[in-house]
Amino acid sequence: MPSLQADHLYKVFGRRPLDAVHELQQGAERAALRDGGSTPAVIDASFTVEEGEIFVIMGLSGSGKSTLLRMLNGLLEPTCGRVLFGGQDLTALAPSELRRVRSHQISMVFQHFALFPHHGVLENAAYGLEVQGVPREERLRRATEALHLVGLKGWEKSWPDELSGGMQQRVGLARALATDAELLLMDESFSALDPLIRRDMQDQLLELQRSLHKTIVFITHDLNEAMRLGDRIAVMRDGRIVQLGTAEQILVEPANDYVASFIQDVDRSRVLTAASAMVPPHRPDAAGCGCETVTPNTTLAELLPVTARVPHPVAVRDDGDRLLGVVPRQRVLTLLGDHDGPQTPCDARPTEKEATGA
Ligand SMILES: Nc1ncnc2c1ncn2[C@@H]1O[C@H](COP(=O)(O)OP(=O)(O)OP(=O)(O)O)[C@@H](O)[C@H]1O
Ligand SMILES: [Mg+2]
């Protein structure tokens, strides 16, 4: 069952919101509506976040990310459209039922995580469980486990002001994890951190996700962060989702000039993988090839030294040693945007000899 679904969501602030939605549906421009006193913050957003997925919503300031996220957990009522969570229509729930879903099944981590200064770290991490009415002993036990998960073992008795910004953010993450909520909504959760700590937190989140398999919606305005974390990324512009796809899809096939201009500065070598670079082997049954082999998710950064070392295309094989394709050196250079790079004898479509390494 899909975990979370946005179904033609609209949010318009200001005057005559429903009229504004109808005008948008008939092709009215957002700017014209703004002149008339309505602010369309989210326009016709539809997507499904699968269970266990990290789904990133990326866009510049004011593009509608937080508004969209607040509709996903029922904090904001959509002007139009529905949010389905585990098949349940959040927009149709009674307020008390919605509060229950929000406190038990959904956790949020914000950019500036507000810890209670007069409570210790452990009590802060246990706060979500306190709201749920979990008995004290159990909530402290679960909060302790969550603090260990985020690398804060030994800090349970400290006070928030004894922690660095990055550590405070970890307490926020621990609070969200302690509740066992299956859906984690993270709004610019790492944006206030300096770059090295931010990267650490990204690594930590990816590592936690490998064992916890939460469903995560992560908001960021940083495309590199989006590409590092996201299984899929929704790119927003002026309230609309202008592209939805994997990092590779967005890099290889940007939907429009806007997305293309966005991805210019991305380090493609760390996002693109052998899977997107490979071409069909000339002879698909070319087993037993003695040439260099990589897995489909080898990044181009890792692949480049291999292609530089060997004269023939590199074979891409899955765990079962099946030949999936081959990557000629020229293809790697082309994908990295180095069109003037050294030419190799192998064309994008390798010869049988090159494909098999024979
Ligand atoms: N409560 C509100 N009342 C009126 N307009 C609002 C309200 N909340 C948001 N907006 C407007 O909706 C648009 C989208 O805002 P939103 O906060 O969702 O953007 P964002 O992508 O999260 O931006 P940021 O990266 O700065 O957090 C903006 O034009 C904003 O001014
Ligand atoms: Mg925001």
From TrEMBL:
Belongs to the ABC transporter superfamily. Keywords: ATP-binding, Nucleotide-binding, Transport. The keyword Ribonucleoprotein does not apply. Residues 4-263 form the ABC transporter domain. This is Glycine betaine/L-proline ABC transporter ATP-binding protein. CDD domains: ABC_Pro_Gly_Betaine (cd03294). Residues 336-358 are annotated as: Disordered. It comes from Streptomyces silvisoli. NCBIfam families: proV. InterPro entries: AAA+_ATPase (IPR003593), ABC_osmolyte_uptake_ATP-bind (IPR051921), ABC_transporter-like_ATP-bd (IPR003439), ABC_transporter-like_CS (IPR017871), Gly-betaine_transp_ATP-bd (IPR005892), P-loop_NTPase (IPR027417). One of its GO terms (molecular function) is ATP binding. Residues 349-358 have a biased composition (Basic and acidic residues). Coiled coil: none annotated. It comes from the Bacteria.
